[in-house]
Specification:
Elements lengths: L4 E7 L3 E7 L5 E3 L8 E4 L7 E4 L5 H4 L5 E3 L5
Antiparallel strand pairs: 1-2, 3-6, 4-5
Length: 74
Amino acid sequence: MMKKFVFALWGDDFGEMLVTYRDLSCLRTISGMLIERISVETTYRSFLALIIFGTIYVKELEKIKELQLCQDIK
């Protein structure tokens, strides 16, 4: 069984956007950085609490404008 991950983006240009993927192993930023081993805890009524094991930190998430999948996840 695949774990379900919730990944949230926010920024001045597009407001808050919340997307859910079953598998983030192929999720990359526009700059091509691979996002690995993401564990996210979040609620809809409060700020995000993101725990990221990798090279991308919470303060850097505001800079991420787009994400693209390198494989189609249905």
